[in-house]
Write a structure and sequence with these properties.
The chain has nine helices and twelve strands. The strands form four sheets. It has a six-stranded antiparallel sheet. It folds into two domains: 65 residues, Arc Repressor Mutant, subunit A (Orthogonal Bundle); 155 residues, Chorismate lyase (3-Layer(aba) Sandwich), CATH 3.40.1410.10. The chain is α+β, with helices and mostly antiparallel strands. Strand 5 and strand 6 form a beta hairpin.
Length: 264
């Protein structure tokens, strides 16, 4: 039985917490396919909640295709559809890999508009308070499954060189280059966040589900900010990796990231 593309969290904050933690355990193979989950009493003790709360969480897991509740036998972990492997990116070479994702995945444009730059975006791009930007929201798909939610902000004078149809069919970095922008540098950070209702709906996940959050500010050769990206990724379909190597000698020996493609 395959996991439903859209899931619904159970009612109650405690039941939602139990649901998400058990779902994470199953997704990360802490419980293998065909295994039985601990009984309600043991789960209630583990999470310090009532058995009613445990039942709500288990019911939601069953509804979403993670487990099958068997009368008198407990809750069995169901086989999962593994036809869609998780997309992996090396953190040390993330930019070129994300460019490659643009080439071999598809995107759907959800919105396209011009307006004042939000305060944080204006500061990151070095724009004045009255500056206007073009904002686009897209969802990127791999094998028809949504795995990333992308919000981009581009200064108006640059964005006027392409239109809504262009952005719906071409990667943004190509449109920037076509507009005469020579990208020189970028700064990015990665953290975690929770799925808001609109993002959850677009990505086919529960409201409040954990997402990887990547923010990137791109600058041209003159140091001008030309793009602000806020990208949200489903952790069940996308992961960040990093290859490390030991360098140095004696007490100064330490780990350093391997920059460039990893040899197999």
């Amino acid at each position: 039985m395959a996991i439903h593309p859209q899931s619904t969290l159970p009612e109650g904050g405690k039941a939602r917490r139990v649901y998400l933690l058990l779902r994470d355990d199953i997704a990360n193979d802490r419980y293998s396919e065909g295994a039985l989950l601990p009984g309600e009493h043991r789960l209630a003790e583990r999470f310090d909640v009532s058995r009613v709360t445990i039942r709500r969480a288990l019911d939601a897991l069953a509804d979403d295709g993670w487990i099958e509740k068997r009368t008198g036998a407990g809750s069995m972990v169901l086989p999962r559809d593994r036809a869609d492997p998780q997309i992996a990116a090396n953190f040390a070479t993330l930019i070129p890999q994300l460019v490659e994702f643009d080439r071999r995945t598809t995107a759907r444009l959800l919105s396209f508009s011009y307006g004042p730059a939000p305060t944080g975006v204006a500061a990151a791009l070095g724009l004045s308070k009255d500056s206007k930007i073009q904002t686009a929201v897209r969802v990127r798909f791999s094998d028809d499954k949504p795995f990333s939610h992308l919000t981009t902000h581009v200064p108006e004078d640059i964005a006027r060189n392409y239109d809504e149809a262009d952005l719906a069919t071409q990667p943004l970095f190509r449109l920037l280059e076509r507009s005469g922008v020579r990208v020189e540098s970028a700064h990015q950070s990665v953290t975690a966040t929770l799925a808001a209702p609109d993002v959850a709906d677009a990505l086919g996940v529960s409201v409040g589900s954990a997402l990887l959050s990547l923010r990137r500010v791109v600058k041209d050769a003159d140091g001008r900010g030309v793009e602000h990206l806020s990208a949200l990724y489903r952790p069940d379909l996308f992961r960040l990796e990093m290859s490390l190597t030991r360098v140095g000698a004696d007490e100064a020996r330490h780990w350093e990231p391997v920059i460039g493609p990893r040899e197999e």
